[in-house]
Design goal:
The protein has helices at residues 2-35, 37-50, 56-71, 75-92, 95-111, 115-132, 135-151, 155-172, 175-191, 195-212, 215-231, 235-251, 255-271, 275-289, 295-335, 339-402, 408-433, 442-456, 477-497, 538-550, and strands at 440-441, 464-470, 473-475, 505-514, 517-524, 553-557, 562-569, 575-576. With 578 residues, the chain is of the alpha+beta class. Helix 15 (295-335) packs antiparallel against helix 16 (339-402). The chain is globular, with a radius of gyration of 29 Å.
């Protein structure tokens, strides 16, 4: 017995050592995935080959591959592996691994702008980790939920969640997540116009992230700091941050980061009148664009998502079929005892077969309709994408033309026309990025449009602050274009006329839904004069034309500045967010 016991003990120790080795191997791959995803993928494939398909390590390798492909910006492959990991972890009963995959999928869909889908996964992950009492993972979920709130225009709930996450990070000693959370807080403060607070938080975030060596998070933090320095008009300092961002992103082959850094460098150098260098960086950004997320990637992502849902339903149907077969067997016992029951059963069987045939015909028709709808949606996305590109070309041509105009007034008129074109291009950009091609998220659109106008007029936000208070509503394409052109005109007028001679003040853009109407207000606390007071001016005529298109009423109040209210009916396409 003793030799046999020794052999069994040796086998146990060998298996235990092998398990420890694979565990250390996958932990190393997780750390490597951020900065060197190609090497991490090799390690994950080795672990998959060496582990049993039912084991937790096998599933963790699937999850790791999904993360590594994400860091490579290969989103279709990333989603494929993440869905496989979720399906296996659910089937094998690995509750924590399933919850972590739901969190990862929520983050993934947030990256694509599919906020409803992101919320579904994150809400379930929050419940899972609350039940598991896992504070570290719960913190990650809260940070992602804050991101969804921010992208949906809910800045106050977003800031509240991020500050709660920062406290949890301190309690658990999670320095890496704490650093990333500070950067996210900075982004929210910047959107609220609190630039000093934003700069304080991003510096704290960068310091913690550099201590941990989280290269990808550092890239995102450098981007945020550069954008903040632009708002302080510290152009050269901002440029240095974008150069650091470009270097780090290039070293780790973070394609999105490289592309964004080139774009930011081009914008900064354009403001510095360094046109040759700006043009070169813009070309570099375009070269990287094709390797990042495209409409084709999004289409593949949608197909993979649909396949996962279909497979899940097939499994449920198979289980139901087995249960039905068991019940049918029990019925046969009773059928053998009664000829009358047998006759009834035969009749039911005939009816069932007929129903199956009808269902088959309906299924084929539904498949044809679904395919046609998918093709239509893809074509609509392509149309919006091309319209946006054409409008951007028009905007670029106007920009080039303005350089050859001799007087400032002509250049100013061209720039105003260019802003109007860009407001329409932004509408089409939002549409082809949306999951719903019929409606546009207004808080995100108007916020981005207002910030673009401030940048266009080179406004120092320490002198003139921008406040937005926009309720979460969705509008159709036509209404959004009218509304965007109105906001473009009203904010531009306020920037041009309300604050002469370096006067300080603020501009507020608000949108409220009152029962069956929508009210837009653009107000300033400037000198109290309005460009709309000139009844023959182009701005006045444009506002009047746009208000007729919306069937809206326009009111002007001049008290402690100027407030212009535009009220129009809440038509069928307008839907409040849940």
């Amino acid at each position: 017995m003793k030799p046999l016991l020794a052999v069994l003990l040796l086998i146990f120790v060998t298996e235990s050592n092998a398990q420890d080795s694979l565990t250390k191997k996958i932990e190393y791959a997780h750390k490597l995935a951020n900065s060197n995803p190609d090497s991490a993928l090799i390690i994950y494939d080795q672990i998959i080959d060496q582990t049993h398909p039912d084991s937790l390590l096998h599933i963790k390798a699937f999850t790791g591959k999904g993360n590594a492909f994400y860091f490579k910006s290969e989103y279709d492959s990333s989603l494929s592996w993440r869905l496989k990991a979720l399906k296996l972890s659910e089937e094998k009963g690995f509750t924590k691994e399933a919850a972590s995959n739901r969190n990862n999928l929520g983050s993934f869909y947030m990256t694509l702008g599919k906020l409803q889908k992101a919320s579904e996964y994150l809400d379930q992950a929050y419940i899972d980790f609350t039940n598991l009492k896992d504070t570290v993972w719960l913190t990650r979920v809260i940070i992602n939920q804050a991101g969804v709130d921010f992208m949906s225009g809910r800045t106050d709930p977003s800031l509240e969640k991020l500050k709660k996450a920062a406290q949890l990070c301190k309690l658990t000693g999670n320095v890496q997540s704490e650093g990333g959370t500070y950067t996210n807080i900075s982004i929210v403060y910047r959107s609220l116009g609190k630039v000093d607070s934003a700069l304080t938080y991003v510096d704290k975030g960068i310091q913690l992230l550099e201590e941990q060596g989280d290269q990808r998070a550092i890239v995102l933090s450098l981007k945020e700091k550069g954008n903040l320095l632009l708002q302080f008009n510290r152009l050269e300092d901002a440029k240095q941050e974008f150069l650091k961002m470009n270097k780090k992103a290039s070293e780790m082959d973070y394609k999105v980061g490289v592309m964004e850094s080139f774009n930011l460098l081009a914008q900064t150098e354009k403001t510095q009148n360094e046109y040759q260098s700006a043009f070169q960086n813009l070309e570099n950004a375009m070269k990287w664009k094709d390797s990042v997320l495209t409409e084709k990637n999004i289409e593949v992502v949608s197909e993979l998502e649909a396949k996962y849902e279909s497979d899940k339903k097939d499994s449920e149907i198979e289980l139901l079929s087995k249960e039905n077969a068991l019940q049918e067997s029990e019925k046969n016992t009773y059928i053998a005892m009664s000829a009358g029951i047998l006759s009834i059963t035969l009749l039911v069987l005939v009816l069932f077969i007929q129903k199956q045939r009808v269902n088959k015909v309906l299924s084929e028709k539904n498949n044809t309709i679904s395919k046609s709808l998918a093709e239509r949606e893809l074509l609509l996305k392509e149309i919006h994408h091309r319209v946006k590109n054409n409008l951007q070309i028009v905007s670029s041509l106007l920009n080039v033309q303005s350089r050859f105009l001799p007087d400032a007034e002509s250049k100013k008129a061209i720039q105003e026309g260019r802003n109007r074109v860009q407001s329409m291009a932004l509408v089409h950009q939002k549409l082809y990025q949306n999951e719903d091609l019929a409606k546009i998220e207004i808080p995100e659109y108007l916020g981005q449009l207002s910030e673009t106008l401030f940048n266009s007029y080179n406004i120092d936000e320490e002198r003139i602050q921008l406040n937005t208070n926009i309720e979460p509503v969705q509008l159709d394409l036509d209404t959004t274009i009218y509304l965007g052109l109105m906001v473009n005109e009203l904010v531009s007028n306020a920037l041009k006329y309300a604050f002469p001679d370096s006067m300080e003040g603020k501009i507020e853009v608000s949108l409220r839904k009152n029962n069956d109407s929508i009210q837009l207000q653009v107000s300033d606390n400037g000198v109290g004069s309005s460009a709309l007071s000139n009844e023959t001016g182009y701005g006045t005529r444009l506002i009047q034309t746009l208000s007729r298109g919306l069937k809206a009423t326009v009111e002007t109040l001049q008290k402690d500045g100027t407030t212009i209210s535009v009220t129009f009916r809440n038509h069928e396409p307008i839907i409040a967010n849940s």
